[in-house]
Amino acid sequence: MNANDMDERVLALEGVHNFRDAGGYAVAGGGRMKRRMVWRSGQHHGATDDDLSRIDGLGLASVFDLRTSKERDKHPCRRPQAFAAEVFFSTDPEVRHAPHIAAAQTTRQRTAEGTWESLVRNYAAICFRPELQAMIRGYIDRLAEGAGPGLVNCMAGKDRTGIAVAMLHAGLGVHRDDIMEDYLLTNTAGDVEARIASGAETMRVITGQLDDEVLRVLMGVEPEYLDTAWAAIEERHGTVDAYLEEAFGLDGAKRDRLRKALVA
User: What span, in angstroms and rounded, lies between the C-alpha atoms of 107 and 242?
Assistant: First the structure.
C-alpha cells in the first residue's frame, strides 16, 4: 500500500485511534468495495470536539460497539450532538475480556513472549465466541440492508474489530492477502505512539500495571494471530465459506445483497 492510499484510508483524529476506511479492496468476480461505507476504529472515549465533527460528517447509519459493559462503563464513547446513527452494543461474554486484555491478566504470562503466545491461543477461539458472532451477524445484516455507512469498533480496534472486518471481507470475496493487509494496518495507521498510550491507560485501569514491552505486544497485531483464526475456522467447519454461512447466515442470497450494497 502506497502512502497516498494510506492517507486516504486513515482518518487522522486526535482522540480516536485506528479509525480507517476498510473499503476499496478488489473482490472475487470483479469490482471493488465502495469507499467510505465500511469504517473501523478503536473506542471514542477520548474524542475531541473536532473529532466528533469529522465523525458526524461521515454520515454513519450504524455503529457496532463490540466492547463489554465494563469497558463501556469505564470509557464511555463520546458521540456528536444529534448523532443519527443507530448504536448496537455487545452482550457480555462469559469470558469478559478482549484477547489483548485476557492476555494481560495472567501474571505468569506477563512477558512479551508469553503475551504473544497467549494472543495466538486466544485467536484460536475468538471466532467462536457467541456474543461476537451475534454482533458480526448483525453488522453484516445491517450492511446488506443498504442502510448506509457502518462503523465497527472495540477498545483498540484490532482484535474483535479485526475479526469482524475480516469476516465481512471474506464474505464479499476480498483476497486473503488483502484481508491480512487491512488487518495489519493497525500497526502503522495514524499516530501509533498515541494509540499505544491510549490503550495502555485503558488496560491498566482494568488489569493493573504492565511492562512497556508487554503493552506494545498487546497493542499490536501479527500475521500469526489472524492465521490462527483461519486455521481454527477451517478445522471446525471445513471451509471459511461454510463457517460464514453457519455463523452469520451468509448464504448466496445474503452475499448477493451484501455485494449490491458494498461493491461497485
Answer: 38
Q: Which of 172, 168, 181, 161 minimizes the C-alpha distance to 223?
A: 181
Task: For the chain, list the domains and their CATH numbers.
Answer: 3-262 (3.90.190.10)
In whole angstroms, how far apart are CA 165 and each of 33, 50, 217? Answer: 13, 26, 21
Q: In this structure, is the dihedral angle defined by the CA atoms of residues 196, 197, 202 and 208, taken in order, positive or negative?
A: positive
pLDDT band at 92 (very low <50, low <70, confident <90, very high): very high
| Residue-wise DSSP of 49-105 | HHHHHHHHTT--SEEEE---HHHHHHSPPP--TT--SEEEEPPPPSS-S-HHHHHHH
Q: Is 154 within 8 Å of 148 (Cβ atoms)?
A: no
The total of other beta-carbon atoms located within 10 Å of residue 44's CB is 24
User: What's the rounded Cα separation, in Å, for the pair 90 and 69?
Assistant: 8
Radius of gyration of the chain (CA): 17
Q: How far apart are CA 62 and CA 74, in angstroms?
A: 22
CA separation for the pair 115, 164 (Å, rounded): 22
Say what the pLDDT of residue 67 is: 97
